[in-house]
Amino acid sequence: FGYTFLGDEDYKEYELHLTHGATDRKLSIHGQHRMVDDSYQGEVSLNSLNPTADESSDMNVEVSYADVHSEYKNNQHFLSGAFTLSGSELMGIQITSEFGIEGDVQLNTTTLRLGASPLITIDSTRESLDDYTITLPEESSPQYDVSEYKEYLANADIAGYLLSISDTLGIDPSLFLTLFLNGFEQ
User: What is the pTM assigned to this prediction?
Assistant: First the structure.
C-alpha cells in the first residue's frame, strides 16, 4: 500500500495504490482537482492490473467532474455540477450526471450516451417534505407473512392470472403464456 498527496491551496493531486504480494495484482487510484471560482473540477482514474492474466482482466475507469460545489440550505445538503463516467471497458458508452439546485429542490439529469448521442436520459428531483405522515395499515387490514411466499407461489394460479391479463390487454394468450412461462422457468 502506498499513497502520494501533493498540492497547494487551489490544486491537489493524489495517488493511492495497492499491490497484492502473491499475485502482483495492482489497484491504483490517481486523481487531481483544482478550485475555480469556489467550484471543483478534475478527474479520477481507477486502474486494476493483473499481470498473471490476459489483458481482458485489466480495468480502467475514469470520472471527470466540473463546476462541482455543495450547499447547505435548511439543514439539507445540495450538490451542483457535472460528472462523467467513462472507460475503455464501457466500449464508447459514457454516463453523465448533472446536478443543479432550484430553490430548495435538488435537480439531476443522468444520461447514458454512446459517443455524442444520448440513449437514455433520466430526470429526477429531490425535495424535502416538511409535513408528511406515513399511514399505518388499519388493524382490520389483511396482513401476510412474507416468509411463507413459497407456499403461496406453489398454490397461486399464475397461468389463470396471465390469461386474465392477456384478455384485458388483447394479447394472444398462448403466445403470452409461452413467452412468460419459458422465461419464468429459466
Answer: 0.60
